[in-house]
Amino acid sequence: MQLTPSSLALRIFVVIALLWLIIPVVIIVPMSFSSARFLAFPPPGWSLRWYESYLGDPAWMAATRTSLIIAVSSSLIATVIGTAAAYALNMSQSRWVRNLQVVLLLPLVVPIVITAVGIFLIYAQVSLIATMTGLILANVMLGMPYVITSVLVGLRKFDPTQEMVARSLGMNRWRAFFTVVLPQIRPSVITGTLFAFISALDETVVAIFISGGDNQTLTKRMFTALRDEIDPTIAAISTMLTAISFLMVILMALNSRKSR
Amino acid sequence: MSNASTPEERRERRMILLLLAPALIVVGLLLITPLVWMGWQSFRGPEGFTLAHYARFFTDTVYLSSFVQTFRIAFLVTIAAILIGYPIAYVAAKSQGIWPPIILGLVLLPFWTSVLVRAYAWLILLQRRGIVNTALTKAGVIDQPLILVNNEFGTVMATLHILLPFMVLPLYATMKKIPAELEMAGASLGGGGGLVFRSVFLPLSMPGVIAGSVLVFVLTLGFYITPELLGGGRTFLVSMLVSRNIEIYNEWGAASSISVVLLVMVFAIFRLASMIIPFERIMGTK
């Protein structure tokens, strides 16, 4: 683009828009190191007291553990189930099977409150409310579409003749998948896993309805705390959650570079 | 299913179903079953079949105003997302070197940050004695703190912030596919920058605008966290209507009928949009 007045104006606009996008994400970091109880900017002094109040509180620690267990296990299960489904969707020629893709992506389409109420309803019948199993299962469902979309994109870029060659040389589908297909679509599988992980870690609405008791997630506790008062401890937790997100973006960037 | 299929084809079909089964079971049990159940509940009263839950849409003004407010906010957020997202995607698609990954990275970082964290950040920024008000007061721009939060403004601001990446990403993907030669051709035929943009680039980028708008609009319709935390009771969206009916009144019939109506609207929007561009393209799998 040449630098005409209008393109300069465009760039200034974009810079402002990007600042607006990024400032709310980074503003939490200085707030979390503030020494003050009230939220002043810039903070009157620096301290680690909000991190101490987070790390020293058994309730926050229990919630963190719950959230991490849910995020790790549900993203791994979603990866296996979702990759299998994406592979089948890509393999099939039948229109009927391809339409199933719409069904499998439904969790992204249905408003999350409705999903949450529905899961609450079903779990109440089979007493899965406030259980680890129930929370993991719900997050498997919510994370699966990310794995399916990401793996489908990877499979479309993959040259299917390679798999045909492997099979004509006597490999069965199972072996051909693990030795020929999987190594090449690994970056998209990993992207899907990372997406599913972060979606489970950040999931709030379903957790508000179905988590509780000993199995309260971090986000549910944060939500409840925010409704009552703005405690700077939340800023410390938020900073850590954001750091995890940042790490994920870096992992993804490295991951997609490797695939090139 | 024709009878002419070979054993090989039949085995293939069985395997496809086997591979799809776990995913289908999860979605079937945790999503489709409850939706069907809610559909049934929405027509049931103490004496069997009833339309009472749907009649409330015409008698209870809270229902109507909640839907109207939800659609108004969804509309506002979508328009604002186009106006802000289009230039960002355009600059990212047109620049070279390190700029596209930097711009996209700046869009993606908030995308990856928890919705809850961002709602909290907006609370810190916009509240009565928040960062924005303090800065403006110190600079002498205002005497009284502005009321930026606990109203529709705060909700729209935070929702827009959270959903903007859903506009930028499909737009960027669409713009990247527009061949530069087409614009050069337009220019070589004597079109000025503005004319070429309006008659070549803008129409070709419309699929991206539609995909992004559908995602942003539909996601806003179901948003729960931001109106709950930033609306201060002044925004009462459909999602909150559903959750209040469960949490406070334990009214399953009412919550179900509201969910059914909202869901039908969401599906209708997707259906309409998929007449223009394929569903797979909206969801980014193609």
Task: Walk me through what this model shows.
The complex is a heterodimer of chains A (260) and B (286). Chain A is an all-alpha fold and 260 residues long. Chain A has a single domain (62-258), classed as MetI-like fold. Helix content of chain A is 79%, strand content 0%. Chain A has helices at residues 5-26, 28-32, 49-55, 58-91, 95-104, 106-109, 112-125, 132-157, 160-168, 173-202, 205-210, 218-228, 232-258. With 286 residues, chain B is an all-alpha fold. Chain B has one domain (60-282): MetI-like (MetI-like fold, Orthogonal Bundle). Helices cover 77% and strands 1% of the residues of chain B. Chain B is built from 13 helices and two strands. The longest helix of chain B is centred in the N-terminal third of the chain and has 35 residues, at 7-41. Chain B is globular and about 75 Å long. The mean pLDDT of chain B is 87. Chains A and B meet through α1, α4, α5, α6 and α7 of A and α1, α3, α4, α5 and α6 of B. Chain B: InterPro entries: MetI-like, MetI-like_sf. Chain B: Belongs to the binding-protein-dependent transport system permease family. CysTW subfamily. Chain B: Keywords: Cell membrane, Membrane, Transmembrane, Transmembrane helix, Transport. Chain B: One of its GO terms (biological process) is transmembrane transport.
